[in-house]
Amino acid sequence: MSLDCSHIRDNKQSFDISALGNPISVMTSEAHLPAHTRTNITFTVDVCKPLRKAKGIPKLEDCENGTRICGIQRVVNTDENTAVFEKAIPIAGQYTLHGGTELDPIITRLKTSSSPSDREKEGFRLELHGPRYPDRTGKPQKAVIDFLCQDKAEEKGERGLVDIVEGRDKAQQEDDDGGEEEDHSATGEVADDGHGGRLKYLNYEQVDGTEILSLEWKTKYACESSTGGDDDSSKSKSSHWGFFTWLIIMCVFPLSTSPDPFFRHPSYHLLFASSLIPPSSIFLGTAAYLIFGSWLNYNRYSARGWDLVPHSETIRDVPYIFKDWMRRVLSTMQGGGSRGGYSAV
Fold first, then answer.
1. Cα angle at 60 between 55 and 65, to 5 degrees?
2. Contacts (Cβ under 8 Å, ≥6 apart) of 105
3. Which residue, among 13, 20, 76, has the nearest Cα to 195 in the 3D structure?
4. In 148-273, which residue ranges form alpha helices assigned H by DSSP?
5. If you average pLDDT over every residue of the chain, what do you get?
């Protein structure tokens, strides 16, 4: 099962994070004593599509095809200013073409989570699965990303925080002496996603036999309100509602109230004379059927546009079928004369 970033849905709430579909990297660094070395793991993330192979990088120093989250571990010698590659860890990806595991995304809306602390947050949790590492005999890999709503006021404050944290990490890597007050615990890096949000490394640890990478992504695209998305998304939603508005108007109000002489013709009213069902009920029933069918297609098949409407292909032909049928009815009721349809010579 793959992941559609433009339609992430859980518990009647949809999110569109397609704008975040580009590689972004965060890093964790841990110092070792007494040697002047550090172990750095850089996690590169693209939740929407597989990562591209970096040019000039040996095959064994990169994750395999289909990987969406890859961790590259290196040992840095601060005295010699060198970095030695250790391993490439495929955290999550789609590997079915190579006989491996599936991405198998699991989406959880935080407001409906079973955890009380999660229900206080706005956004969703995304779980992505990977293969066993190393060599398909090791521990299963998994990534858990919490996408949290970030409003405009918070967005401005986070930009300054990103600069401070990145500057701290760079200074820490360039510190050759180490210093007496240096913190040797693992530290995480915050990365700007290019859309006003930030991705933060939390931890990478083993839980119940599975190695889990935990990340936090604060972004406006995780907000449930319409203001949380981009302008294009809002325009798209407005256009859909415009279609349904006109559909309801056309179906609820009987066409017989139209000033058009065609609909005021007596033959039009005779069409409903023999029916026990009022015309307004027919139109209301049609409207209810179309609206319910569209809702069903949206929730069950994630349909969009004309595909929302049930029997959309047939409905497109209805105006032409109806026009032809009305022409025949009017011709029959008006009579064709005594010539049986033949013209005078």
1. 70
2. 1, 2, 3, 126, 127, 128, 129
3. 20
4. 152-174, 231-252, 266-270
5. 76
Are residues 28 and 187 in contact, defined by beta-carbon separation less than 8 angstroms? yes
Our CA dihedral for 38, 206, 26, 196, rounded to 10 degrees, sits at -150
Measured in residues, the chain has a length of 345
* Model pLDDT for residues 1-26, shown as the tens digit of each residue: 678 999 899 988 999 999 999 999 99
Burial 200-239 (b: 16+ CB within 10 A, else e): bbbebeeeeeebbbbbbbbbbbbbbeeebbeeebeeeeee
- Residue 34, preceding peptide bond in cis (omega within 30° of 0): yes
- Cβ pair 199, 219 in contact under 8 A: no
Packed helices 279-301 and 231-252: angle between N→C axes, nearest 10 degrees: 150
For residue range 292-313, list pLDDT tens digits in order.
887 776 666 555 666 677 766 5
Question: Hey, is 249 helix, strand or coil?
Answer: helix
Q: Hey, which residues does 44 pair with through a beta bridge?
A: 25, 70
Distances (CA, A) of 152 to 42, 95, 149, 158, 220: 29, 38, 10, 10, 8
CA distances from 230 to 14, 152, 233, 237 (A): 14, 12, 5, 11
For residue 32, what are the β-bridge partners?
A: 37
